[in-house]
Design a protein that fits this description.
Helices cover 40% and strands 13% of the residues. By secondary structure, it is α/β, with parallel strands linked by helices. Pyridoxal-5'-phosphate binds next to helix 6. Keywords: Decarboxylase, Lyase, Pyridoxal phosphate.
Amino acid sequence: MRENEIYVLSSNPEIKETLRSMIINTLDAVLSSIDSDRCYSGIDPNDLRRIINSIEVLPENGIGFDKTLKRVEEDVLPHLLSTWSTSYMPHLHSPALLEAIASELIIAIFNDSLDSWDQGPAATEIELIVIKKLCELFGYGEDSDGVFTSGGSGSNLSAVIQARDKFCNEQLNWDVKKKGLPAEYKKLRIYTSSISHFSFDKASHIIGLGYDNVVHLPVNEKCQIDTLKAAEIIKNDYEDGYLPFLIVATIGTTDFGSIDNVKELKQIADKYNMYLHCDAAYGSGAIMSSYSSRLGELSLADSITIDFHKMFLLPISCSCLIVKNKKTLECFELHADYLNREEDEEDGYVNLVGKAIQTTRRADALKVLIAFMTRGRDGYRSMIDRVIENAQYFYNKIKDDPLFITGPKPELSSVVFAINKGDELNKRIRRALMSKGTIIGQTVWKEKVMLKFTLLNPALTHEKIDELVKAIKEYK
Ligand SMILES: *Cc1c(COP(=O)(O)O)cnc(C)c1O
């Protein structure tokens, strides 16, 4: 068989061998491109653009896989970001566990989809058992359920839609699913921290309420929602005729890893029949750690966003939303004759499309299963304890040094800090480190440019942290 006659996998031994050698060659190319601990080649954006632009995207005649791989090896692999590097710490962007990388191969080869049972029989059943375990882990009872999504933003959007539909159904006796927004829609309001993730503003736009109906609540010194002020703001809005329908507690803010008080926010939510959502995209991983009590009582919330591509160290993308009462997910249910016939479901063929915004959906739950089985509670605990303890170590090292300004004491694995010599120097430090292959974060806190270590890599050592502190101090 000629190379260009082999299209897709089959039981033919020759074809299986072809795939095997393509995968092995790809892996060899990847592994031989990794020869240092830097996270980036350091090339500047214009030079990189020139190299990438020289690639012919769609030649008239295909050049075959070997030549294509060679070109990728020369021009692409050296400049990809090495997320496993302990020199990479700007974002909530984690390295991937080895077994989870291997599991991607299974997901890609079978290419199952989670819309209907006949598109992914075992994949569907796996999503169901993984969701069940997650609900148990976060303290939800029998009525709970959940669904894998495209990412934390997708999970949050899904929660916002459920909150709106539930509120309109129960409080305004209005079926949004059928009739669209109610006449008084401009009064519907979402309440979230002033430092929450911007996916709530986006979600508010997407569902037709707009940015102005997202109220950003003030935070205290620890970067948590000030619940006394929140109660006051919501009460005033309510008395002014607004319809507060959703409070979001952020469990691990993107910048600081700060954790809102779920119990106090739940009391406010109950008073006005509001939906309470926990955005634990970042903090959810800490459920596995010895520090899980820092997260608070997440099971009080109506839903929880969990990102596996952050603290759980799985490849992108992998996220889910779990809900306390499976009824709220019904807002995504819709039957089509070509996909998810009602009679199938009566006979036990579960079609997960009825819980999701997406239709075609990857079997991401499989990599959660494989990583959970491989590591167990104990393996995860030690990895996540280590990243939380590393943040503590770094914070303790600089907090009393007059050269540094430090942000709030870390609850999770992020430390926000700056050199006490003005914004410009701090910006320069980040750029200078980047050109040497170390990438750290930058944000703003109390109107100052701040630097940030977002520590997700359990392989980071105290010695490496010491070296980085020394390097940063040299720029003063
Ligand atoms: C990362 C993050 C998100 C968005 O998740 P994606 O997976 O990037 O879409 C939402 N909320 C918080 C708090 C986050 O840190």
